[in-house]
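Ligand: flavin-adenine dinucleotide. Inputs:
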Amino acid sequence: MAPVFRKQLLNDIEVDVVIIGAGYTGLWTAYYLSKLNLGLSIVIVEAEHVGFGGSGRNGGWCSAFLPMSPTEMAEQHGRDAMQFIQYEMFATIAEIARVTELERIDCDFHQGGTITSASSSAQISRVKDYVAQWRTAGFDETVIRWESADEIETRLRTRKTYGGMYSPHCAVIHPWKLVQGLARVLEARGIAIYEQSRVVSVKQHSVRTTRARVHARWVVHAVESFASQQRRTKRSIVPLYSLMVATEPISPHIWNEIGWSERETFADGRNMVTYAQRTADNRIAFGGRGAPYHLGSRISPKFDVNEQIHDRLRKTVRETFPALGDVKFTHQWGGPIGAPRDWHAFANVDHRTGLCSGGGYVGDGVALSNLIARTLVHQMVNIESPLTRSLLVNHHSRTWELEPIRWLGINGLLTLTEIADARERRSGAPASRIIAFRDRLLS
Ligand SMILES: Cc1cc2nc3c(=O)[nH]c(=O)nc-3n(C[C@H](O)[C@H](O)[C@H](O)COP(=O)(O)OP(=O)(O)OC[C@H]3O[C@@H](n4cnc5c(N)ncnc54)[C@H](O)[C@@H]3O)c2cc1C
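Predicted complex:
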């Protein structure tokens, strides 16, 4: 589906709220502000087109799990704050289901849960440790549990599973349909979205685009990885590339062999992040990290395709699902995700300057952007709610290292992760020492 281009901002305007970026964060923020019926004038200014960022091209995991682990959150903010935000995330999946149904946004939403399969003996202890971490954090078997190989195989059949983690708190969506549907709803509510209107400078109560200026009481920054391209926020976030492939629609007889009728999101327990979904039109969309970080946090469309990584992804899909036979791959793409130095999401509002920002999702922004947007809105209009005191509020991560240390460090971490996975494949034992070393470097 090609993007529909909307009008550019050509004249100076004055509004209550200007939102920079037409991805989920910007669109959800506009949605919840407008639903308050306070008569606020709201505009969105977008450098390219609606859904140009990760929001239009992600893996469709609408997941209640955060980039921060429960252990880290409890250590940093206390156990109650960690549990509060986690239950809010579980409720966020239901909130997205509610709004998409209410607003008739057909985005293939289906909540089938999520599986991380231990696909080698080396992965068993890591996946079990992950489940144990949640148990220690106070979440019972209804939230997350270890399932035996037989139980996982009743869900979907891969080349090999030794069992895995299952949680019901994840849905799948079609990213492009969700982002375009949200934009349509906003426009029907009278909110203008200007495309091809890149913001080139931000000041208190005003932003300048390439052609015009917007004066506003509130300026909401919702650009995720692209904040790394702006002087003021250059070291607040790094763009890490996540790449994906998709098969052609797969025939019913192959699906009979694979199963996967509940369309759970699927990952295997290797160290490098992988993520997959069975799409509503019966393809497998499969993604992974591991693409190199580019010096100076560069973002470019040419980095969206990396033949070596895309080939590796296609090979992984065929290895994971031998039943695919000669099913063809029809799509490959990628894009940057935004990683703050401490992997911690934020919803920051400054009442004095009117500057607000939300993001820091590290590849988990599909559902989290909805909670961040509501958290921003509650703060902006002073709604008395526990969201305004959550651990997402006014969090400022420390900045990333200067170059070339940043480049060396991030690519070094990626290399260590690959070495660990290769060693696990060869030896069948967890590469715990390499991973512990990697994690110490990152801390
Ligand atoms: C390949 C891939 C797979 C992913 N898979 C998943 C997944 O399965 N589950 C999950 O939860 N998350 C996933 N993510 C991450 C998720 O897509 C993002 O976290 C989320 O979409 C971020 O939304 P956003 O609105 O904050 O940012 P974006 O969607 O990046 O939107 C930011 C917008 O700001 C615009 N912009 C940038 N600079 C300017 C400027 N100067 N002026 C005006 N506009 C500007 C951009 O053009 C862009 O449209 C994935 C991401 C990628 C790339």
